[in-house]
Amino acid sequence: MKKILFVEDDDALGYALEFSLIDEGYNIIRTCTIEDAKNCFNNDEFKLILLDVNLPDGNGYDFCKYIREKSSVPIIFLTALDDEVNVVMGLEIGANDYLTKPFGVRELLARIKVQLRSNKSNEIKDKLISKDITIDISTSHVYKKNELLNLTALEYKLLILFMNNPNKIIKRESILESITGEDDTFFDENTLSVYIKRLREKIEDDYKNPKYIITKRGVGYKWDIEVGSE
């Protein structure tokens, strides 16, 4: 069930739209303030955000900017501010669509479906997911259980290589060639072992008993967990 964050302080409109969206099979989380919306956004994953502009503790434009610093989730503004300046502003700061009140439920549903279809193809390209490890390719951020990991550039290259080749034994020489490329920096198998150890320390629950990066002695390494995309 696709989860949508719905930020609207007008109770009459909010309840009516929430009911209609639930009836269409969406999982709706509704908030009435930016503060509550931020808490929901930071602690959950949403497929789409419906956002009012005028809210009790601020405006939706600022929240839109906040979201865009962290995510490419589709955003549709729902607002009574229908002049061209506001519409252009909303789109320029990162909104995907802008629907002015009053509007029909069927039109809203159609626009939601368009954004979800578009975002689905982007997510496949932009995210790699393996159990509790997620790589956001668009930002180069790596998360374990939704916590941001601090990886070096070489650790990130190693992780990308492994997650793009799940359940395959990768020879040490192939790994060295892949992560160094045309770089003349000295990088031997002993150095590789050090980087593998450091990466394990960051992504494994117990790096001494790894479940992600498995050593195949005398050959190389293997990413031992399935990888997919949302």
UniProtKB/TrEMBL annotation:
Keywords: DNA-binding, Phosphoprotein, Transcription, Transcription regulation
UniProt domain Response regulatory: residue ranges: 3-116
Origin: domain of life: Bacteria
InterPro entries assigned to the protein according to its UniProt record, in alphabetical order: CheY-like_superfamily, OmpR/PhoB-type_DNA-bd, Sig_transdc_resp-reg_C-effctor, Sig_transdc_resp-reg_receiver, WalR-like, WH-like_DNA-bd_sf
4-aspartylphosphate modifications at: D52
The OmpR/PhoB-type domain, residue ranges: 125-225
Annotation: DNA-binding region: 125-225
Record-linked PANTHER family: ALKALINE PHOSPHATASE SYNTHESIS TRANSCRIPTIONAL REGULATORY PROTEIN PHOP, REGULATOR OF RPOS
Function (record text): May play the central regulatory role in sporulation. It may be an element of the effector pathway responsible for the activation of sporulation genes in response to nutritional stress. Spo0A may act in concert with spo0H (a sigma factor) to control the expression of some genes that are critical to the sporulation process.
Protein's UniProt name: Stage 0 sporulation protein A homolog
Species: Romboutsia sedimentorum
